Amino acid sequence: MKFFLVAFPFQIRALVFNMNFFPTGNFNEYASFFIYLGDLLLLFACFFYGLAILRGETKKEFSFGSWQITVALLAFAATMLLSVFFAEYWQVALLQFLRFVLLLLLYFLLINDLLERKEVLRFFLYGLLAQSLIAFGQYIFQGSLGLRFLGEPILSSDLPGVAKIDFAGMKLVRAYGTFPHPNVFGGILVAGIFWLYYLYRKNLHLLGTIGVILLMALLFTFSRSAFLALGGGLLVLFSLHEGKIRWKYLLLFGCVALFLIVLFNLEGVLIQRVFLGDDPKSALERLEYITAGKKMFFEHPFGVGMGNFTLIMQNYLGVKLSPWLLQPVHNVYMLMSNEAGFLGVTALLVLLGVTFFRLLKASRSGDEDERIFTAVSITILLILALISLFDHYLLTLYGGQVFFVIYLALVSASLNKSLLPRRKS
Question: In a 10 Å sphere around its CB, with 0-12 CB exposed, 13-18 middle and 19+ buried, how is residue 199 labelled?
């Protein structure tokens, strides 16, 4: 499990299925199925966990975590399975469902304490540190570092489909790490920063050193949704944990960020990226996806099947898209309503709502460590809900899916333990 937590961001994978027909004649990332190194490591962890049970080496009862979250998660998975029966390309929908079944194994391993919570977070952060160093090199050299054997994408300022920023007549490549897109990397980095605070809030040297590295990598992603999530998350966390906003901490964090921005001469490009908008075409493309999504939903209220959005979206657009622009709608809620119908998006909203209200109730009890973890968990949940308005990776891309399940598992296990004393009393 330790190896899995460090390795899952590395996109080391093998293609095992792709459709024989694509509307553009090009490869479709979102309608294909890969086996990842993380999948193999997860299966190994399941095998050895089962072996330990058979040998009687673990005497702990099997846990289902917080039953409310677990039931909501299983209902969410059930709507994915139901979408197979409404899918035009049913093979794609079935494989997407099987991917989530594999992730459910991860969920149950974590809620049964295969690793203790803080150990899970430490190894998760080790992986992010490695990714941050790769991101630093990608931005400095403005391209790939030759780490294809680790799943690094091929990056260059003159390649179509690579995330870039137009600035002062140049095209600046955004940092990917080995994630499939900078926005995925940026969103997970934000969550990592808050988990880092929970782990090392009493060790300022580690908190400061690791925090600067993660923040540096976040800046190099130039992910506006991640920047917005970080700013809003800081306000939420300090409000929940301290009972009021501690402006001196926010000021200190802002000074560190400003120092890094000036150090790497990022002020100009960040002002253009965040406030002026460097890519009006991107906004127009996202609006086109939303328009297609609305039409698709009203025509297919029970969904078109998981993974099928990009295969039929061209039917709902008035313009011909380039192959690299055939992407899922950049809104998780709309995408779920398109692919799994109104039942799917309802199940997703129930899952998020149940998690939020269970955390809110738990925030009033427990020791200091549990209260801080609960405050951080509420903060990350609100971040995920916010990012889901602007992107799709929590539902469509391996790194985002794994991160979402890790988060739910840690929260579910924590809420279940907080109830144990009351059950026994």
Answer: buried
- Beta-carbon contacts of 266 under 8 Å, excluding residues fewer than 6 positions away, are 219, 260
From 70, 28, 208, 51, select the one nearest 114 (Cα to Cα): 51
Gap between the Cα atoms of 385 and 376, Å rounded: 14
d(CA 50, CA 157): 48
Among candidate residues 35, 47, 56, the one with its CA nearest the CA of residue 1? 47
For 364, other C-beta atoms within 10 Å of its C-beta total 8
Tally of structural domains, the chain: 1
Residues 124, 208 contacting (CB under 8 angstroms): no
CB 258 within 8 A of CB 266: no
CA 187 to each of CA 230, 261, 323, 372: distance values in angstroms, whole numbers, following the listed order = 9, 19, 25, 21
Enter the tokens of residue 33: 């199925």
Q: How far is CA 37 from CA 11, 364, 402, in A?
A: 8, 40, 13
Chain-centroid distance, C-alpha 45: 22
Length of the chain: 425
Q: What is the pLDDT along the chain (425 residues), one digit of tens a residue?
A: 888 999 999 989 998 888 764 444 567 788 888 999 999 999 998 888 888 888 877 766 788 889 999 999 999 999 999 999 999 899 999 999 999 999 999 999 999 888 899 999 999 999 999 999 999 999 999 999 999 999 999 998 888 778 888 766 678 899 999 999 999 999 999 999 999 999 998 888 898 899 999 999 999 998 888 988 998 888 888 778 765 555 556 566 667 666 666 655 565 666 555 545 555 566 677 788 888 899 999 999 999 999 999 888 888 887 776 666 778 998 999 999 999 999 999 999 999 999 999 999 988 777 888 989 999 999 999 999 999 988 899 999 999 999 999 999 999 999 987 654 444 43
Look up residue 351 and give its two tokens: 């899952």
Residue 250 belongs to what domain range? Answer: 2-424
Contact present, 42 and 105 (Cβ < 8 Å): yes
User: Residues near 335 by Cβ (< 8 Å), separated by ≥ 6?
Assistant: 293, 309, 328, 329, 392, 395, 396
